[in-house]
């Protein structure tokens, strides 16, 4: 082993032995950032892959399938498609999400013609448990997937109750769908029986096609698409199962959520990078004379550069390795106990499994190692550039940090951040917004030495101008004013942790308060009704609506109809909401963003969510065409509504317009206002006494708000966890930085003791320094965090989720964390000071004699 290798090992392990806590904290910060990011990637990838596989299972092995832009279309199209010369077999399909009494979620029922489906999609044909072939055509039989059998606890031969509208009916479980994916809850019925049972006689959801041997699939697809578009504009789509458009729809449901969680996970990684920087900077500052002596003894400049970079890289290497292992374990536990969607509701009903991805693991490993190397780059360059003659002199530590006080890099970062904050999204993701946040953080941290020097110099001048100076205050301000580089490192730790915590806390609080306010304004009625677990299988018909409208004690009853429509084959469906809307005062029924424009005479008005403006380039005052009632219908866009439910887009229209165009008289939801002298409990009892009352779910505004806020908190549980981790790592980093700086000043304390400063006074100096630096860091961190929260609230969230919200600052939370940082800094300074003063003044300064 060469002498150079021995020297490298001696310096590396010697530094770790001397300051193990700082090294462990930096490793932990890197590990946490890598683990959280890798775990979130594994969870979402596993869930998305399983979701896509489940979709392929339902699509079967068809060559092509035809779907409508509405959920159902007239089955009269089927003969025309089946007679196409290149189509060997056409298989009609009906998809219905059926309600299951007593269950919170619905069961997807697939209605097929067994003879035709056996050639096109054999995986969708059930296997009779009794061996009777007639079961697959029986109007009382249903075949369950293994997951649905386990969920409903119904074996073959048992019965299951399903709900269509307000009516329940019983089917017998005739067998299983053995080829369904694990965890996939679906059921199969004869298509005629399904149409009858669920009130869908005469309509289909899809037509699956098996082409003739030798047919060109792309050519047939183009031919069918052109013919359908010519005869039925905007009503049908011809696609190959699981093509890129379908993959795009599936991934789009969770991409923004996935990317935002990953970026939040990188918050911990950024904190780890700064801890590596502070660890290496303090180490280089403390060992300047050591490095200078090595230079004098013949060690080359590049050798020192490599040594310091190796020390930083070793922290990143260990942290990244631990993070990869911890991330895999965390993802496995999260999928086992919390589900694949982390509370967000994107991937319910799937049972994913984790597969270790080498490429993704390599990327996150490289990310952890890279931020550690970048964190140690500036200290390494300083160690290599230092002149040996100057560095050998004691008390020259602050010179090593002089370059940190340059102002122009921070100004460049702020300017670039301002420009990027107004940049449009890339691939519908706020990538420039994230870059703006990173630049704000880097620029803010870079300003700390100059800002600390300016603030404490001014305070020192004010103190010196006083007739009588307190010695502790005078020494404290003098030291802070003349050691701005070391103060900047300490301030950077406070700034990075507190500003990120402030930004995330304000973002989450703003969304939560905005959601609560939206619910208050959106739920003015006293009682809300809907068919319990009805799914897409039906609604309240005219007879039920008339019974509710004539109910004694009901002052007013309003009805709402919601259904999905497809406007773009590459995007998930948007939701059409038909309700009572007064065009003279639409704000009574919806929460508007801005004013509603006047509706031209004879036009049908529509109000759209913000997602429609971003995803479909809809403009207020323009026209929107939607498929309704078998043709494309034009609506005048009269305004924008705030909508936190329909992320893929929502269109609000008048109920009377919807019924006139679609012929659909059913409704999904009912809002009821009680008459004077009648309570909501009394009214609920009267509704329950109606023939269909037992099939309804009842909720009051307060209950809906409570459930919605619980869902919100569950969805943001990962954000809360990341926020807590960032705070914990930041506080630990602040404590480590203060302790390292305090212990490194043993010589300074020894000299002060020689000139008559007491031990108690030095401890008070340290406590005042820690409190002053933390107070300045908290103040700057709040200002920087507020700027970052502006980007999150007004740039990142609208570009990611197309939501708008008002800013809300959670003062109690921020005040408590700020107080905790102040206390931690003061206590750390005191504890470290006691250790630094334990050796006595003579031993502390003996190196200078």
Task: Walk me through what this model shows.
By secondary structure, the protein is of the alpha+beta class. The protein folds into 4 domains: 1-58 and 254-393, no CATH class; 61-240, no CATH class; 413-421 and 442-522 and 707-849, no CATH class; 527-699, no CATH class. The chain is 56% helix and 15% strand. It has 27 helices and 21 strands. Strands 1, 3, 4, 5, 6, 7, 8, 9, 11 and 12 form a 10-stranded mixed beta sheet that branches. Strands 17-18-16-19-15-14-20-13-21 form a 9-stranded mixed beta sheet. A hairpin with an 8-residue loop joins strand 3 and strand 4 (107-112). It is elongated. The relative contact order is 0.11. The model is unreliable at 244-253 and 343-349 (pLDDT under 50).
List keywords for this structure.
849 residues; alpha+beta; 4 domains; ten-stranded mixed sheet; 27 helices; 56% helix; 15% strand; elongated
- N/C terminus separation: 37 Å
| Strand residue percentage | 5-15%
Number of strands: 21
**Residue-averaged pLDDT, rounded?**
82
Any low-confidence stretches, pLDDT <50, length ≥5?
Answer: 244-253, 343-349
Q: Main β-sheet: number of strands, strand sense, barrel status?
A: 10 strands, mixed
SS summary, helix count = 27
**Helix/strand/pairing class, anyone?**
alpha+beta
Shape: elongated
Helix content: 55-70%
Tally of structural domains: 4
Q: What would you report as the Rg, rounded to the nearest angstrom? A: 34 Å
